[in-house]
Structures are given as C-alpha cells and as structure tokens.
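User: quick one, sequence for these tokens?
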C-alpha cells in the first residue's frame, strides 16, 4: 500500500513537472466567389464550397504555407526542417463535417507564440488559396484567439497510473524476494534438523 501511494505521488509530481502548453484557434468561412462562378439557380453549391474548404485545409498543411512560418519562428537551436516538423505536430486544420468553416488550431509552449503562429498560418493559407484560385471568398470569422492552457487530464491519469503500476510491481518484487528468503531460511532450518 505504501508503494502504491508513493507511486501515485510520484506520478502526480511527474505530471506537474511537464511544461504547460497553450492552444490558439481561428475560424474561417469559405464561400464561392459569385463574381467568378456562375451556377444555375437550382444547383446545390454545398459540394463545391465543401471542396474549397477541404482544399484550404490541405493548403494550410502544405510545405508552401508551413515553411515560411517555420523559417520565421525557428530559433538558433533548431533547423527550419525541425521547426516544420514541430509545427506539423502542433497544427490542426480541419473542416467540421459538411460545413463551410475551417478551424485552425496551433499549440505551443508560449501562449503569445501560439497565437502569432496561428495568425500567420491563417494569413499564409488564405494567400496561397487566393493565388491558386479566384473561385473562393475566405473570411476570418474569429481571428486567432488568445491562447489558453491545454488541459490534458488523460496525461495526468496516465502518469499517475504508470508510476503507481511501477511502484506496485516493485512492491510485489520486494514481497516475492522476502518470501523466497523466508522460504529459503525455513528450508535450511528443516535441513539442519
């Protein structure tokens, strides 16, 4: 029981020692540029708009958008390629099912940097889509939000659970070794008699 309690405390301390991360999100609205596209009155625009929204999400995840942002934010301790990899791991761009919106979320260890990178990704993505087609009109509904702390209760539970399991296994090993030592002593005592 003592080992289990110590394991839980160690897991909690391990979780608290991990640096906080911050997340900033922006929401975009994609529509057809009706000056460029002529569609009949009875034609459903939804598939075309959804295709444009999905295209924008893919463009925002492309090297053409991420590389300049990575170059801007790479520090002296990392290469642009490393920063690109880091951005890809901390960038989420998705289109909620069948909608005309695109949600962009960036996570970073610095709240201000998360917000700035999110704004830069959005701007670069809009510029890239506008350069490739004139069929879309993109509006920023919500610019990059003030970054908030990413709360991951699963990692806390996981860290505590892992440490508790490690200490539980350690306690069982101590018990098994102690029991084997007692059995060995009893065996030697029986052998002498």
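Assistant:
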């Amino acid at each position: 029981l003592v080992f289990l309690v110590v394991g839980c405390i160690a897991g909690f301390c391990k979780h608290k020692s991990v640096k906080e991360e911050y997340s900033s999100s922006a929401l975009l609205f994609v529509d057809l540029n009706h000056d460029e596209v002529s569609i009949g009155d009875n034609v459903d625009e939804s598939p075309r708009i959804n295709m444009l929204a999905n295209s924008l999400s893919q463009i925002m995840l492309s090297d053409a958008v991420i590389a300049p942002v990575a170059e801007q934010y790479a520090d002296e301790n990392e290469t642009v390629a490393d920063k690109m990899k880091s951005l890809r791991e901390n960038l989420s761009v998705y289109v909620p099912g069948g909608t005309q919106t695109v949600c962009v979320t960036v996570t970073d260890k610095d709240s201000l940097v998360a917000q700035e990178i999110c704004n830069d990704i959005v701007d670069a993505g809009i510029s890239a889509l506008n350069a490739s087609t004139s069929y879309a009109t993109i509006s920023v509904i919500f610019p990059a939000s003030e970054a908030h702390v990413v709360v991951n209760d699963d990692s806390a539970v996981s860290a505590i659970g892992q440490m508790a399991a490690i200490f539980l296994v350690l306690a069982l090993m101590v018990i098994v070794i102690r029991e084997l030592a007692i059995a060995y002593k009893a065996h030697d005592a029986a052998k002498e008699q």
